[in-house]
Amino acid sequence: MDRKNRRISGFPVFSLLALVLMGAFGADTRGQEALFIGPLRVLSGHSASGFLDVPAGEDPGSAIPVTVIRGAREGKTLALVAGVHGYEYPPILALYRLKEMIDPQELAGTLILVHIANLPSFQKRTIYYNPYDWKNLNRVFPGDPKGTLSQRTAFILTEEVVKKSDGLIDLHCGDGNEALIPYTYWMKTGRSEMDDLTRAMALAFGIPHIIIDETRSKDLTDSKYLGNTAVLLGKPAITTESGLLGRTDEESVRRNIEGILSVMRLFRMIEGTPAPAPEPVWIDRYEVVYSRTDGLFYPLARMGHYVVKGQKVGWTTDFLGHIEEELRAPFSGIMLYIINTPPTSQGEPLFEVGRVLEGNPK
Fold it and tell me: How far is residue 45's CA from residue 110's CA, in Å, rounded to a whole number?
C-alpha cells in the first residue's frame, strides 16, 4: 500500500489543537494544595509511594502499588495505569523508571502512577485473568465494592484514580501469549470536545497505528474498560499497546516512556513540545477472532502482516492432534496481534485484524 496515502494532511491542525490544549491544560506558577490518594497525602513539590488497599470479600483482598508526584506548580492531574493485565511487563517497567525520572519541582500538575493494577495476576504470572476470581479486570469496570476481587479492584481504581484525575492513559501490551504490534485506541464518543482531546492524546503518544474505536458502551454502569470508564466520567483517556509475548525489551519500555512524556508535554506538565507520529495509520474497523475449541493453535500469519479476506491465518487441533477448525481473515487488513503460543481455550482470542483507513478520520 502506498505510504503517501496514509499521511495526515492535517498535521498543522494537530499543532493548532495542541496550542488550544496547552491553554486548556496550562500551568501557572502557584503551588498546589495537598492531594489525597488512598492513604497518601502528597504536598506540592513532593512525591509519595504506597498502596491502595483492596479489602477482602468473598475472596482474598489485595493492594495496588502507586506513586503520586505532585508538581510544585499548578496544572492538571494525569493518571498512568499499568498492569491491568499482570503479564504485560513493558508498561510496568516504564512507570517504575518514570518514577525516578520526574522531579516534582520541575512538574506542573500531578502524576498518579499505578505501577501494577492487578497485583495478584502479576505475582502469579497469569494472562488476562485474576487468579482468585478468574475475571478479566479490564472487563469489570467501574467495579463493585461488594463484588469479587477484580470487581473490588476496579471500584478502587475508579474511585481513587479515575475520579481524582483530569486525564488517563491505560498502558497495555501484548500479553504473555500475544505477538502484537504497537497501537493506540482512540475511543470516539461523538462529543466533539472530548474527541478532540483524546485524538490529540493518541497522536501525541507517537505510536503510528491508531484504532478508531466507536464500539465501547455508553453506559457507565457497564463501561467494562478502564479507559472507557474514564471517558464516560468526562476524563479524556487513551489505551495504548507497546510490547509483546511477556517480554521486557528495551524498545517497548522506551516507547511507553517517550509516549507518556510526549502527552505530558501536550498538557504542558513539562517543558517541550509533543512528538506525534509523522504518518499515523488509522484503523477504522477491527475484529477479534476467538477460538471455538480447547486445544492447540497453529498460526500461519504474523503480526504486522497484511492479509486478505478469507486468507487462512491458522488452525486449531484438539489435544489428540485432530484438526478442529481453520481460521480465516474476516476482512482484508493488518494483523494487529496473533497468539504465538500453542494453548487455546474456547472463547479466548486467537488474532485481531484491523482495516486501514485511506485518508484521515472525520
Answer: 9
* CA–CA dist 20, 344 (Å, integer): 47
Question: 172 and 89 in one domain?
Answer: yes
What SS3 class is residue 83? coil
> Are 327 and 236 found together in one domain?
no
Q: Same domain, yes or no, for 233 and 309?
A: no
Question: What is the domain range of residue 337?
Answer: 284-356
Yes or no: say if 243 and 251 are a contact pair by the CB < 8 Å rule. Answer: no
DSSP 91-141: HHHHHHHHHHH--GGG-EEEEEEES-S-HHHHHHT-SSB-TTT--BGGGSB
Q: 260, 80 in Cβ contact below 8 A? A: yes
Number of alpha carbons in the 13 Å side-chain half-sphere of residue 341: 15
Residue 10 identity: G
**pLDDT tens track of the chain, all 362 residues?**
433 333 333 333 454 455 445 444 544 456 789 999 999 999 999 999 999 999 999 999 999 999 999 999 999 999 999 999 999 999 999 999 999 999 999 999 999 999 999 999 999 999 999 999 999 999 999 999 999 999 999 999 999 999 999 999 999 999 999 999 999 999 999 999 999 999 999 999 999 999 999 999 999 999 999 999 999 999 999 999 999 999 999 999 999 999 999 999 999 999 999 999 889 999 999 999 999 999 999 999 999 999 999 999 999 999 999 999 999 999 999 999 999 999 999 999 999 999 999 878 87
If asked whether residues 308 and 232 sit together in one domain, one would say no
Identify the CA nearest to 178 among candidates 339, 296, 316: 339
The partner residues of 282 in beta bridges, in order of sequence, read 210
Q: How many CB atoms lie within 10 A of CB 179?
A: 19
Same domain, 11 and 76: yes
Burial 60-91 (b: 16+ CB within 10 A, else e): eebbbbbbbbbbbbbbbbbbbbbbbbbbbbbb
CATH code for position 98:
3.40.630.10
Same domain for 60 and 103? yes
Q: Which residue has the cell 502528597?
A: 42
The model's pTM is: 0.90
Report how many domains make up the chain: 2
